[in-house]
Amino acid sequence: MDQNDLKGIFAESGKRMKAGVDHLLHEFAGVRTGRASVTILDSVQVEAYGAKMPLNQVASLSIPEPTTIVAQPFDPSQLGAVEKAIRAAGLGLNPANDGKIVRIPLPPLTEDRRRELSKHVHKLSEECRNAVRQVRRDANDRLKKLLKDHKISEDDEKKGLDEVQKLTDAHIKGIDDLQKKKDQELLGR
Q1: Facing residues of 68 across strands?
Q2: Which among 18, 52, 138, 174 is least surrounded, fewest beta carbons within 10 Å?
Q3: Does one domain contain both 130 and 180?
């Protein structure tokens, strides 16, 4: 048995764990904290030209003020569709158009809404931790199978299990840190 099989298991596990954390970061970007960010509109789909398209493909998005996002449709005839899509996205936003652009004022977050968003952040974090643990289980199962098939020694299996645990601990700590940081942004704690 060469060490490349073990390295492959570690590399793949690390990659899968990192992908989970990257996904969590993307999800967190969509959670509003009080400052305007165009990423909160990532989920908005506009009905344009007979198809549903992401908002950022039908309009340019900018932040002229900390609490306002502006959407300027590339095609002025899409103004109504852009406004309608933002309203329908369930983000609690109330866009208004002036005939050229759609202004999206961001209402201040209430304490209740902040707590609700914090719970959502905790749920997303826990889902990510579970995904990381699943990757750990997969890797450990593969190591146990290699041992059972006499492709690695018991020492190699033990080292492998330790290495996978270190990877898992590092990614879980990363998730915990991201969650704390997002909570501080939301709750100011």
Answers
A1: 65, 105
A2: 52
A3: yes
Q: What is the pTM of this model?
A: 0.71
**Where a domain ends, among 105, 126, 148?**
105
Give the whole-angstrom CA distance, residue 188 versus residue 184: 5
**Burial letters 134-159, b for 16+ CB under 10 A, else e:** ebbeebbebbeebbeeeebeeebbee
**Which of 56, 84, 105 is the last residue before a domain boundary?**
105
User: Quick check: helix, strand or coil at residue 29?
Assistant: helix
The count of structural domains within the chain is 2
Confidence of residue 187 (pLDDT cuts 50, 70, 90): confident
Residue 129 predicted with pLDDT over 60: yes
CA gap 42, 169 in Å, rounded: 31
CATH number of the domain encompassing residue 162: 1.10.132.20
Q: Apex CA 180: angle with CA 27 and CA 187, to 5°?
A: 90
Q: What percent of the chain has pLDDT over 90?
A: 68
Residue 2 pLDDT = 55
In the block, tokens 């645990």 appear at 165
Residue 14: phi and psi, rounded to 5, are -60, -40
